[in-house]
Structures are given as C-alpha cells and as structure tokens.
Amino acid sequence: MTKQFDQRHRQSRRILIMGVSGSGKSTIGEAVAEKTGCEYIDGDQYHPPANIEKMTKGVPLTDDDRQGWLEALADLFAQHRRENKSVMIGCSGLKKSYRDILRQGDPELIILFLDGSYDTILQRMEERQHFFSPQMLRTQFDTLQTPGSDEAISIDISKSFDSVIDQCVSELEALD
Predict the structure, then answer these.
(1) Looking at CB atoms within 10 Å, which of 16, 82, 94, 143 has the fewest?
(2) What Pfam family is a match, any one (predicted)?
C-alpha cells in the first residue's frame, strides 16, 4: 500500500464490489478491503429470510424481493458516509436500477465491477463446489446490465487472484 493511498484513505470511501455470483465479490472484496484498510461487508448477509429461502430452492429473486435488501445496503453506505468511515460492500448489483438504489444520496460511491465470462465463472464455481447452479448463473448473466466506464471500474477477473487484487488496489489508488 502506498503512502499516497494511506493519506487519501483517511477520507472515507464507500465502495461497491459487484458482479454475478461466483465472480469473487467476497474473496476479492475481503482481500482488497484488508489491503486498503477498510471494512468489508458481504451484502448477502442482509437478505431477509424469505429471499434466502427462495435462493436455497433455486428460485430467482424478483425486483420486489430485492428492493428492501438494496435499501438496507444503501442505508449501510449512508451510515458509513455519515460516520466518515470507509466500507466495501459486496453485492451483485446486476441492474443499473439496483446500483442507483445503492448510490442514493452518495454520488461518490465507487463501483468495482468484477467482469468475467460465463465459462470462466462456471469453471471456478465447479472447482470450488459452489452451491449455485449453472442455470441460476445463466439467469444472473441474462439479468446483468454491464455498467459502463462512466459508472464503474471494470476489473478483468480472468487473471490470477493476486493480479485481480493488485488491479483493484491500483485502480483505487489512482482515484483522486
């Protein structure tokens, strides 16, 4: 971590790390948060029981299912902003409308988009015995509205884990 990043980090940052299931939001998010000295929160922990039950049964969530969950995450971002604390929250953020909810009241929200192909992510999920089915992964890709460069920083996850971490940290360091 560079000294320049240390100084800027004192100004709180709110970072959304997003991507389809299996893109690495939790593992990459935790590692980047540790390297940059901010708190990491797994957004999935804030799903209400009804959402968890649906996902466990392999039923995709609707926009209505996600609304309260996204608002709870937006509240977390707002709380950290008020307290001048840095935080990174992992959340799929598949649609622009979801990201707009998360960004509410925080135009300085930084979005890191973990971008990878269906085949790359499916292979990684199969290697780690992920519970998420290939059909549900397909549904996530079908739902994904890829953010443009004006909305998010795209991170190519086809590289090694360490390279992806380094790229995330470098991109955050480059922000002013």
Answers:
(1) 82
(2) SKI
Q: What is the mean pLDDT of residues 159-166?
A: 96
Read off the tokens for 165: 């971490």
Domain at 129, CATH number: 3.40.50.300
| Dist. CA 94–CA 31, nearest whole Å | 22
The count of domains in the chain is 1
Sheet holding 87-90, edge to edge: 39-42, 87-90, 14-18, 110-115, 153-156
Total-model pTM: 0.89
Burial of 143 (0-12, 13-18, 19+ CB in 10 A): middle
Neighbours of 146 (CB within 10 A): 12
DSSP-derived secondary structure letter, 152: -
> pLDDT tens digit string along 73-126?
999 999 999 999 999 999 999 999 999 999 987 889 999 999 999 999 988 887
